[in-house]
Amino acid sequence: MSGLVLEALVAGRVARGGADFRLPPLDLAARPGEVIALIGPNGAGKTTLLKTVAGLIPPLAGRVSRPGPVAYLPPPGAVSAGFSALHLAALGRAGRRRWSPGLAPEDIEAARAALARLEVADLADRPFDRLSSGQQQLVLIARLFVQDAAVCLLDEPLALLDPAHAQAVEAAIRALAAEGRIVLASSHHLPFAARADRVLAIGPDWIEAAAPAHALSPDRVRALFGVETPGCPCCGQALS
Fold first, then answer.
1. Inter-axis angle of helices 105-117 and 133-145, to 10 degrees?
2. For the chain, what are the domain ranges?
3. HSE-CB for 85 with a 13 A CA cutoff
4. Apex 188 CA angle, 184 and 194, nearest 5
C-alpha cells in the first residue's frame, strides 16, 4: 500500500464578500501504519485541512495523492442516529453494496466482530443516540474498521471523553494503524500527540510536521497556544 502525499497543498475557504481563509502550503508524505496528530488552537484550520485531504472541499492550490479510499470521522456529536450501534457500524460496508439497498449478513457479522474487538459488543443492540460520547466514538471507530479505507481522518476523536474512554479510543486508533492504515487525527489532547508517530502543527502563519519531541517542546507549544508548559505533555515530568 502506497502512502498519502500532499504537495504544496493549500487548504482554505473562499468567503463570499469577506476575507479568504487559507493555510500555508503543506508538503507531507505519510506512510501506511503511521499515526499523525494534528494540533493547533481553535480556529487554526484543522477541520478545514482534514476535509481537504478527505476530498470533501477542494484545495485552493496544490494536490493530494491518496493511496486508496479515505474515511472521515467528524467531531463527537456530529453523528446522530436512532438505529442500533451494530447497524451504524455495519454501514461502514455500505460502499461495497453500490447496487444493493441493504446490508448483507456478512456486513453485520463484520460489524459485530469490530465491536467485539473494541470491547463494546454489549452495545450492539442499543440505540446509538442513547450512548455516551465515549461509547459513540468507539462504535464509530468500529465502523472505520469494516471500511476499505487506506486513510482514516479523525476530527477531535478524544474530545468530551473521560480518561477511560480516551484511553480506549487511543488504543483503537493505534489498532487502525497497525492494520496498515494511515491515521491523521486532530486533537487538543497533547498527551495523545506526544505518543503519535509525528505531529502536524498549525500555527498563526505556519504549518509544520515534526517528531513529537520537537513539535511539543516548550518553545513550540508557546508559539502555538501562547501558554507555558511546565512539564512533558505525555508524562508531566519537568522539561530541561
1. 130
2. 73-148
3. 28
4. 70
For 144-171, the pLDDT digits (tens) are 999 989 999 999 999 999 999 999 999 9
Ramachandran angles phi, psi of 237, nearest 5°: -70, 150
Backbone angles phi, psi at 185, to 5 degrees: -125, 125
Residue 141's contacts (CB-CB under 8 Å, 6 or more residues apart) are 73, 118, 154, 157, 169, 172, 173, 176
Q: Which of 57, 55, 53, 61 is nearest to 29 (CA)?
A: 53
| pLDDT averaged per 10 residues in sequence order, the chain, 240 residues | 90 79 96 97 96 96 96 90 92 74 87 97 96 95 94 96 95 97 97 97 94 94 86 57
Q: For residue 148, give the amino acid letter.
A: D
Place of cell 462504535: 139
- Calculate the CA 46 to chain-centre distance: 10
Bridge pairing between strands 70-73 and 151-155:
parallel
Please state, in angstroms and rounded to a whole number, the distance separating the CA atoms of residues 104 and 97. 9
**pTM reported for the whole predicted model:** 0.91
Cα 77-83-86 angle, rounded to 5 deg: 95
Alpha-carbon radius of gyration of the chain: 18
Burial zone of 8 (CB within 10 Å; 0-12 exposed, 13-18 middle, 19+ buried): exposed
Parallel, antiparallel or unpaired: strands 12-13 and 21-22? antiparallel
